[in-house]
Amino acid sequence: MPKALCIGELLIDFVSTTPDVTLAEAPGFVKAPGGAPANVAVGLAKLGMDAGFIGKVGADAFGDFLRETLQQNSVNTDYLISGEGSRTTLAFVATRSDGMKDITFYRHPGADIQLSPDEIDTDYLKSAELFHYGSVSLSHSPSREATLHAIQSAKAGGALLSYDPNLRLMLWDNASDAKHWIWEVMPYADVVKISEEEWEFVTGDIGLEHGIERILGLGVKLLVVTLGERGCYYTNGFVDGFVDGFIVDVIDTLGAGDAFVAAMLIQLMQHADLTSLEKVRLDAIMRYANAAGALATQKVGVIPALPTPVDIEGFL
Questions:
Q1: 0.70 exceeded by the pTM?
Q2: Domain that holds residue 172
Q3: Residue closest to 4 by CA, chosen among 108, 74, 90, 105
Q4: CATH code where residue 169 lies
Q5: Which of 16, 17, 84, 100 has its CA at 20 to 30 Å from residue 128's CA atom?
Q6: What's the pLDDT tens digit per position in 197-225?
Q7: Quick one: which of 236, 257, 261 has its CA closest to 4?
Q8: How far apart are CA 79 and CA 121, in angstroms?
Q9: Hey, how many other C-beta atoms are within 10 angstroms of the C-beta on 46?
Q10: How far apart are CA 295 and CA 259, in angstroms?
Q11: Would you report the helix, strand and coil content of the chain in percent, each value rounded to 5?
């Protein structure tokens, strides 16, 4: 059984071949496998962890391509379901060198939100030592209920739970629903990673102080705020710090946060108690994760760009 399980969206990103243009201006697109939790699953597998993915794609050519991609990257797909009733979700993405993205989704509805609670194998989830989830699969039923059931099962099984809200407001019916459900699953998490551009929406706090208090007050053991090329900030309530990022010539920023998460988690899994980690160790873990994030910007498409341990160690 895999040691790490990820649940959520698996889709096709059509990424603009030209940076710093709008979707309307983009002359062409490259097909790339995407979906943040799936990216994290591949990132973990590339870094040497047994990883499995739980989700749903369409019974179509794009769904077949995505399944094959995960399998080629050593991710277990036993619980990746091919649904007959809807098509694989698509996203068209124009990236900018400053890290911002122009994204339009084709999901009316997409297969990813058709995953239902009765398709969740509780025993499989209880086998996980690490479980990672986001908020996109909470945007609509039945994947909302399936995701909640999976989170609760993994928690009951004693897994370390990792949460990246990965805010995609255009996939929600309204902003208040998004905020409600993002917070609804926060208390289950041991590790939370939020990007700087998501912080104000999620916490309602322009600064860090009050948002940190609120999140750690729910029982979260480690909170990380990613700051793009400036690196990241972390706190476990006892120690905190800023760790500088790496300046690289960016080709495609898409998926840098997922590479960061995978690299951070693979390091954290070596420690039983996250609240007892000393600053020197946390600094080293975040530097490793920052390196993975920087490396992920060096190729078009997320999965091909996700680094191996040799890549990261060589870079460092």
A1: yes
A2: 4-8+36-87+111-315
A3: 74
A4: 3.40.1190.20
A5: 84
A6: 999 999 998 888 889 999 999 999 999 99
A7: 261
A8: 8
A9: 23
A10: 8
A11: 40, 20, 35
